[in-house]
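User: Predict the structure for this protein chain, please.
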Amino acid sequence: MLPPRPLSAAAVAVSFVLLLYLVELIDVVLFTTDLDRNGIVARSVDGLDGIAWAPLLHAGWGHLLANTVPVVVFAFLAMSGGLAQWIGVTLTIWLTAGIGVWFTAPPGTVTVGASGLAFGWLAFLLVRGLFTRSLRQLALAVVLFLLWGGMLWGVLPGAPGVSWQGHLFGAVGGVLAAWVVGRADRPAAGTRNGSLGA
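Assistant: Here is the predicted structure, written as C-alpha cells:
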C-alpha cells in the first residue's frame, strides 16, 4: 500500500536521510565525532536528552550506510496513512525506543543511530493490517516479512556494540503506533475496499 502522495512521501524520506548524512558530516568535520556523546546515556539523568538526539547521530559512516536503505524504504511505506499520521507514528517509535534504551541498556553506555526507527517502522508495517483489518496492508506485511523478516533477529542480544535494546523497543513502539492507528481507523474499516469488514 503506497502513500497517497508517493512523490511527496519519497521526498520526506530522502530528506530525512539527507539530514542524517548532514549531521554525520558536521560531526566528523567540525566536532571530530564528539556529537556522538549526545546520544542516550543509559540510566543517567544527564543522558535523558539523548532520547531527542540519538536517532540523528551515528557511530561513523558505516553505521549510517547500514541504516540508509531500511530507513528510506520503511519511512516511505509508513507514510501510507499520510504525513500527519507518519509524524505521530514516528514520534511514538522515537520516544518508546529512547526511553526503553535509557532504562535497559548497560549503565553508562551511549546509544546512537536510526536503527530503532527502522525497526519501529518495520514493526508498524508488519502488524498494522491486523489492527486495521485491511487486506492490502496484510499483503504488504507478507511481502515485507519475506524480504526483511530476517532483520527482526536484531531485537535479540547479538553482536557486541549493537543496541538490540534500541531495536527491540523501536519495534515495541511500532506495534504500539499500529494499535493506536488501528483503533482510529477501525470504525471506517468496513466501508473500505480490501478490508475485512464485520
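The beta strands are 40-41, 110-111.
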